[in-house]
Amino acid sequence: MQTIYVQFKCRPGAAYRVADRLVEEVEEISEVYSTSGHYDLIAKFYLDPARDIGHFVTERLQVLDGVSDTFTTVAFKAFGRG
């Protein structure tokens, strides 16, 4: 699986609605958090290795009502216990 993190800037007042839609409509989502700083939300997604990340972000996430901008980070390796 490919792991990506996407940060979302949302239109004013839309962050919780966007978070709810992500959880309800995007099966690839693992978790979503509200955040402080330049972005309103950060979400973790697991994609099939053959899935095109660019198409997923631009055609599935950026088009959600209330999203004004995204920033995507690709994760290479997880470190930790267990």
Topology:
Blueprint: E1 2-10, H1 15-25, E2 29-34, E3 41-47, H2 53-61, E4 67-75
Antiparallel strand pairs: 1-3, 1-4, 2-3
Q: What is the percentage of strand-forming residues?
A: 35-45%
Compute the CA-based radius of gyration: 13 Å
Q: What would you call the shape?
A: globular
What is the number of beta strands? 4
| Largest pleated sheet | 4 strands, antiparallel
Low-confidence stretches: none
Order of helices and strands: EHEEHE
Helix content class = 10-25%
> What's the arrangement of strands in the largest beta sheet?
2-3-1-4
Termini gap: 18 Å
Helix/strand/pairing category: alpha+beta
Figure out the total of helices. 2
Whole-number mean pLDDT: 97
Q: Which terms summarize this structure?
A:
2 helices; about 80 residues; alpha+beta; 4 strands; globular
Q: Can you give a write-up of this model?
A:
The two termini are 18 Å apart. The protein has helices at residues 15-25, 53-61; strands spanning 2-10, 29-34, 41-47, 67-75. It is globular and about 35 Å long. The protein has a 4-stranded antiparallel β-sheet with strand order 2-3-1-4, with helices on one face. The longest helix has 11 residues, at 15-25. With 82 residues, the protein is an alpha+beta fold. The mean pLDDT is 97.
